[in-house]
Give the backbone structure.
Amino acid sequence: MPRLTGRLAVVTGGSTGIGAAVSALLRHEGATVVRASRNPGPSEDGDIPIAVDLAADEGPDQLAAQVLAIGVPDLIVSSAGGFLLAPFADTSLGDLDELYRVNLRAPFELARRLLPPMKSRGRGRHILIGSVADHRAFSGNAAYSATKFGLRGWHEVLEEEYRGTGVLCSLVSPGPVDTPLWDPFDPDHRDDLPSRAVMLKPSDVAEAVLWIASRPAHVGVSVLRIGPA
Ligand SMILES: NC(=O)c1ccc[n+]([C@@H]2O[C@H](COP(=O)([O-])OP(=O)(O)OC[C@H]3O[C@@H](n4cnc5c(N)ncnc54)[C@H](OP(=O)(O)O)[C@@H]3O)[C@@H](O)[C@H]2O)c1
């Protein structure tokens, strides 16, 4: 029996990696999925692809408007993100701004538009994809970590502000996951990175998201941290 029949879900970053796995699993469980990214490709199993650059000034607002034209979502999964491995001394303000816009500004603005109608209706779940780098420091992660620590801080504020409204906020913080995010860094040929074989699979993170999304409304999940065994 599908667990999410009749639910409307918005998944950002749904073209590859974690977001694609989340979209597929939510669809499998009966949800109507709006799958947003710059290049989402054609509809898959009846989902609703939306092409949007979430790093652009108006990108998150444009996505929110298109979602609300369909309905008030039951579930938001903000997975779109960028990554960078570089020493702090080689990290430019442009690098920081690029990651900030997609990793933090975009989910912030999307939530600013979508959480109020969810609160008025009195139910919904907001799930952010954080990272092990939202609570642990790694060399080479200056810009990425700044955005992910920021994401966690913002999530904790949201949790407080939405407590008792019916809108439940969760942060899923995975360790390394074998996705195209690692392609520019070739982890299988570096001693300082885990090999792809030991990383989590995108489906592992998708299962974590589904577990949260399918809890009954009286169960909140604040933070879910998963990583390779
Ligand atoms: N992989 C890991 O080891 C790992 C670990 C912990 C956390 N995470 C987090 O998980 C999330 C997903 O990462 P992933 O590993 O699945 O990486 P990925 O395969 O590279 O996916 C990134 C997604 O974000 C979308 N995206 C990037 N820039 C965008 C923009 N400006 N506007 C709209 N969409 C944009 C991409 O789609 P388009 O190219 O179509 O725009 C793609 O769907 C990220 O937030 C990442 O920080 C990843």
